[in-house]
Amino acid sequence: MDKTERSEILSILVSNEPGVTARLGSLFARRGFNIDSFTASPTNDPKLTRITIATTGDDRKFDQILTQTAKQEFVKTIDIMDAKSIYRELLLLKVKADKKDRSQLMEIVEIYRGRIVDLSRKSMIIELTGSSEKIDGFMDMMSCYDLIDVCRTGVTGINRGDAGISDSSDDQ
């Protein structure tokens, strides 16, 4: 097996009931897996919640993660880190924006296809959606400004095409 570290994004359908997300987080912690991002959201079925986890590891770790999640009473676990999936992250960034910086900030926001969602005399709040790499690049550009507050949602993702996670043929 390859020992090269890489990022992976897992999408896990779980029952929408108390304690399931804690059990899943505990499963990762007990086995020494780091969670880079953990996002939970409702689905079109009120009995199910979609959890998207971004993590880093080698082939052995990912095999172990998929094996361990399959043993649980989760509905479905799939690795969505491929070309057949779309994943995004949301950033809300509050930055100091006096008169002299405002036009430069607006240009950067436009280049990254973000939106200014709030503007005051001394600050602005920027909303940006995209891949983690895009968000990281934007944050690098913004590092020379006075950042007041940063809020990132973490990654969420979905399969392309007609198939949903519940009818995917990749049973784990």
Strand and helix order = EHEEHEEHEEHEE
Which percent band covers the strand fraction? 35-45%
Treating each run of at least 4 consecutive H or I residues as one helix, how many helices?
4
Sheet bearing the most strands, described?
5 strands, antiparallel
- Helix % is 25-40%
Q: Looking at the structure, what is the overall shape?
A: elongated
Radius of gyration, CA atoms, in whole angstroms = 19 Å
Distance between the termini: 19 Å
List low-confidence stretches.
168-172
Secondary structural class: alpha+beta
Oligomeric state as shown: single chain
The residue-averaged pLDDT reads 85
Explain the overall architecture.
With 172 residues, the protein is an alpha+beta fold. The chain has 4 helices and 9 strands, in the order βαββαββαββαββ. The strands form 2 sheets. Strands 5, 6, 7, 8 and 9 form a 5-stranded antiparallel beta sheet that branches. Residues 168-172 have low confidence and may be disordered.
Tags for this entry?
alpha+beta, five-stranded antiparallel β-sheet, 28% helix
Topology record:
Blueprint (H helix, E strand, L loop, with lengths): L5 E10 L4 H11 L4 E8 L5 E10 L1 H13 L4 E4 L5 E12 L2 H13 L3 E5 L3 E8 L1 H11 L4 E6 L3 E4 L13
Antiparallel strand pairs: 1-3, 1-4, 2-3, 5-7, 5-8, 5-9, 6-7
